[in-house]
């Protein structure tokens, strides 16, 4: 493996989606209280329970929208066609007609909520999500963001692996699990660890009062938790100090991130194999770096 290898970052992409929302809020294209009802088509078809849902509810998993973290949930979804953006719009329209599993304000970690947020971004800008990531984050930071399994865009890139019968077995990316286009804003990016670290440094600097791309007020809002989850970040304490973290997994890839602003340090951990010891390896990693005390 090399530092130029690309890894899938799973749900760690949620912080990218939230950061783009922050950029558009600063330009006045939308606000933190903009609702799907305000910008998406066919609002008359939406379930009444979603009328007061805002983009901030979506980004903090407080919208009450269905999770879409379980494979069985996908069996109910129609076969959407057209461009990725059209599929996201159609998915949001379909989803928002359904009975919510929880009430507004209840925490339900929801990939679908971030899909709706992505559809909102596309609706207010007229640009597709992937172009917005390039314009608002990747371009300014000089990083290279791709989508889907790394090997699908470059055959020299790593494959993911399953642990089967005690052996690590490569997962053929052309056969099996592929995240549908409508869920890309929830977590289907791949990049090098160096490029991902540039994004993490952007957020770490803001936590130390040295913002770039966004104002300090916007970063503060992005990092302010509702309960224990902010906009794309889990927020808590480690050794009595504030910590932001997130984990992303696409089954055979796992990405862990930890930010400790009081110490001006962050840790990023990528792995392309999943077994019962993955979490142990992550904790050993942060112990060795001195992030945690035994």
- C-alpha Rg, in Å? 19 Å
H and E string: EHHHHHHHEHEEHEHHEEEEEH
Overall shape: it is globular
Q: What structural class do helix, strand and pairing data support?
A: alpha+beta
- Rounded mean pLDDT is 91
Helix content: 25-40%
Number of strands: 10
Largest sheet: 4 strands, antiparallel
Q: What is shown here, in short?
A:
This protein has 294 residues and is α+β, with helices and mostly antiparallel strands. The chain contains 12 helices and 10 strands.
Structure description:
This protein has 294 residues and is α+β, with helices and mostly antiparallel strands. It has 12 helices and 10 strands. The strands form 3 sheets. It has a 4-stranded antiparallel β-sheet with strand order 6-7-8-9, with helices on both faces. It has a 3-stranded antiparallel β-sheet with strand order 1-5-2. Helix 1 (14-27) crosses helix 7 (129-141) and helix 5 (84-95) crosses helix 6 (111-125). The longest helix has 15 residues, at 111-125. The model has no long low-confidence stretch (mean pLDDT 91).
